[in-house]
Amino acid sequence: CFPSGPFGFQMDVLARQPLWQEGLDYPHGTGHGVGAYLNVHEGPHSISFRRREDESSLQEGMTTSIEPGYYEEGNYGIRLENIMLVEKKNGQHKLGSNVDILHFVPLTLIPFQRKLIVADMLSSQEKEYLNSYHKTVWDSVSPFLQKEEDKIALEWLKENTRPL
Fold first, then answer.
1. Average predicted confidence (pLDDT) for the chain
2. Backbone angles phi and psi of 118, in degrees to 5
3. CB-neighbour burial class of residue 85 (10 A; exposed 0-12, middle 13-18, buried 19+)
4. What is the pLDDT of residue 91?
5. Domain boundaries defined on the chain
6. Backbone φ and ψ of 46, nearest 5°
7. What is the pLDDT of residues 50-83, one digit of tens each?
8. What fold characterizes domain 1-108?
9. Labelling 59: which of 17, 44, 51, 120 has CA 20 to 30 A away?
10. Angle formed at CA 81 by CA 58 and CA 3, multiple of 5 degrees
11. Looking at residue 126, what is its pLDDT?
12. CB pairs under 8 A, 24+ apart, for 79-82?
């Protein structure tokens, strides 16, 4: 969650901070607006270390990618990419009546590849996030697979969204 009004460059540091603690970084933006008809990097916002002159703050209803990564040239690369919707979060807060609390709601509903997750290296908060995300994937996708009676896909989804 975050208060309304931040620009992408302010959010970008939150994604990079764990890598910076290890002396690492990635050479691309963390996210961008998602357009239509092959206009993939659509404004008016972006989540990047570079601030554009015409950039808008993140606002309710915006669709954005969130895609941090890490690359070791000649060895490997890791990049997680989800498409998210910025929504207003209901509930009480003490930030003032002119401030909304926003949060990202996933639109990409694909489980993270379990074979690439080393659960012992994750904090309890990271595990909680992944388990919550996987529950959202299961709750959102499984009814369609049940309706289609696709038992193979349903079993795959069940296995790949089970708690860590």
1. 91
2. -100, 95
3. middle
4. 80
5. 1-108, 109-164
6. -155, 160
7. 888 888 899 999 999 999 999 999 999 988 899 9
8. Creatine Amidinohydrolase (3.90.230)
9. 17
10. 25
11. 93
12. 80/112, 81/108, 82/106, 82/107, 82/108
